[in-house]
Design brief:
four-stranded parallel sheet; about 300 residues; Rossmann fold; D-amino Acid Aminotransferase, Chain A, domain 1; Dna Ligase, domain 1; alpha+beta; five-stranded antiparallel sheet
Length: about 300
């Protein structure tokens, strides 16, 4: 098979592992810098150009689109879909997962456990929003934040009000969520591939840090999921329409709650923590499912 991977940095662990896994199975994988692509959006013959040349026809495309280039990255991916190339994750599913508010609404619609979450535009509703979320301590998140950036823990209602008003005064959109104290600064990431949980790790935040992101100094260890946690991860992936994703959950007293569904999960932490060949499982999934024109949405949505 001939596979394209949309990625800006070919040297990242995840990208190197996917290329190695593909080549180990006899496939050809080209890493294409998403921002260097340009498109001819012509009727019945869509084309993509890269470094001055038209890209050849691929059997599949692996989108590893960074959060900072989501808009353009999804446009390029939709072009691949319109050309009939099989996408590991479809543009519509990635778009859903990148919109924190929409993703939570979709998860809530499907009855998946979530922390109490509130959202408002008018700063005059700040006190009501704090009350709806259950009062301090509260977690306040930028809708556009990634890797723990733009996430604030407000210990008191006074500090929560100040942070919310500051963010709203700057014209940015935020979510206000209940703080799951019993999680103890740890969360669980479950890797879902093709509707199955193939690996899971527990991430623990650095000393004095309530965020458990590995990018922020957190550590990872293998963890055994309960049947409810496993099913929650599978249902969350399905709600987003993603074949491959990382589902981040907290262990609340009333059961697992989903914090985020990541459509381009990093492989380094989970592969090293579990010893499982996640990259190989992703390539195996593509082998089993990649067929020309199989994209459900064909660039729509």
């Amino acid at each position: 098979m001939k596979i394209a991977m949309l990625a800006r940095n070919a040297d990242l662990y995840s990208h190197r592992r996917l290329k190695e896994a593909a080549e180990l199975r006899g496939h050809e994988l080209d890493i294409i810098n998403t921002l260097r692509c340009y498109m001819n959006i012509a009727s019945r013959r869509p084309e993509i150009y890269y470094n001055g040349e038209k890209l050849p026809m691929y059997d599949a495309v692996i989108p590893r689109i960074g959060a900072s280039v989501t808009f353009y990255g999804l446009a390029v991916l939709r072009q691949f879909e319109m050309m009939g190339v099989y996408p590991l994750n479809e543009s519509v599913g990635i778009g859903r997962s990148r919109d924190k508010l929409r993703s939570l609404q979709l998860l809530a619609r499907d009855g998946i456990g979530l922390p109490v979450t509130t959202f408002a535009h008018d700063p005059r509703h700040t006190e009501e929003v704090i009350k709806l979320a259950g009062g301090a301590p509260l977690v306040i998140k930028l809708l556009e934040g990634t890797q723990g950036i733009g996430v604030v823990l407000a210990d008191t209602e006074r500090s929560a009000k100040s942070v919310i008003e500051a963010f709203r005064g700057a014209g940015v959109n935020i979510l206000v969520q209940e703080f799951i104290k019993e999680a103890g600064g740890t969360d669980i990431r479950a890797l879902v591939v093709g509707g199955k949980v193939v690996a899971a790790m527990k991430r623990t935040g650095a000393e004095g840090e309530f965020r458990s992101n590995l990018h922020r100094g957190g550590s990872a260890n293998v963890v055994k999921l309960s049947p409810e946690e496993r099913m929650t991860a599978i249902r969350a992936a399905k709600a987003m329409g993603l074949n491959v994703c990382g589902v981040d959950m907290l262990r609340a007293n009333h059961g697992p709650v989903v914090m985020e569904v990541n459509s381009s999960p990093g492989l380094e932490g989970v592969e090293k923590a579990t010893g499982i060949d996640i990259a190989g499982k992703i390539i195996e999934f593509i082998e089993a499912h990649a067929k020309a024109g199989k994209t459900r949405t064909k660039g729509k949505g």
